[in-house]
Write a structure and sequence with these properties.
There is one protein chain. This protein is an alpha/beta fold. The chain has ten helices and six strands; from the N terminus they run E-H-H-H-H-H-E-H-E-H-E-H-E-H-E-H. The chain folds into two domains: 2-11 and 81-211, HAD superfamily/HAD-like (Rossmann fold), CATH 3.40.50.1000; 13-79, DNA polymerase, domain 1. A six-stranded parallel beta sheet has the order 3-2-1-4-5-6, sandwiched between helices. The longest helix has 16 residues, at 64-79. The chain is globular, with a radius of gyration of 17 Å.
């Protein structure tokens, strides 16, 4: 079972987008929270910067990205919480014999901080954390999920992925994995169009996987 981190395990998307909107506005690119989520959510940071610079028509300051990461981390320390039901859901899946890991667009340092702040680090040890910065291409390419499956010693067809963005769902489908779209704070139609089964509450995930499993899910894998 492969979990995305932001928006699936930790309630970080609004925090990150609010910080991003404020810092882009300071640079002369007026950006609201909804606009930040629409235009930048789910992108690698280098792509966030490139897209913002294209809109601005100039480069951001050389230290802008580092300052964004520092400001976001400070906000996380004040506000970050686990997504409702995340600890209990992961614990139930582990108890049922499913292997779990987390695969994020973000750097491993960010995932490490997010898991530690929310107490989820006990469920996802270092060897079960993966970053798009470790592969050639981030989501929507399948590289990250294929890398995670290989490192965990599981065939792609025996994996399921929980994602909250169409790009993440696209990556899971391209990897040949079962794609589950978590809809609590996402566009259901966009997730469905990308090829996801829809999941409205993490509490429903164990039933979805364990009570009515598809052939490509192997408990204990």
């Amino acid at each position: 079972m492969i979990f995305d981190c932001d928006g699936v395990l930790v309630d970080s998307e609004v925090i990150s987008s609010r910080v991003l909107a404020g810092m882009l506005t300071e640079q002369g690119l007026p950006t609201t929270l909804p606009q930040a989520r629409r235009d930048y959510q789910g992108l690698l940071l280098m792509d966030v910067q490139a897209r913002a610079e294209a809109k601005l028509g100039r480069s951001l300051p050389p230290d802008w990205l580092a300052r964004y990461e520092d400001t976001r981390a400070d906000a996380f320390r004040r506000e970050l919480a686990p997504v409702a039901g995340a600890p209990e859901t992961v614990e139930r899946l582990c108890a049922a014999g499913l292997g779990v890991c987390v695969a994020s667009q973000g750097k491993l340092a960010k995932t490490r901080l997010s898991l530690a702040l929310t107490g989820l680090d006990r469920l996802f040890p270092e060897h079960a954390r993966f970053s798009a910065h470790s592969v050639a291409n981030g989501k929507p390419a399948p590289d990250l999920f294929l890398h995670a499956a290989a490192a965990m010693g599981v065939e792609p067809a025996a994996c399921a992925v929980v994602e909250d963005t169409p790009s993440g769902v696209t990556a899971a489908v391209a990897a040949g994995m079962r794609a589950i779209g978590y809809t609590a704070d996402s566009d259901e139609q966009a997730l469905s169009n990308a090829g996801a089964e829809l999941l409205r509450s993490l509490a429903e995930l164990p039933r979805l996987l364990l009570d009515t499993p598809r052939p490509n899910i192997t408990p204990g894998a």
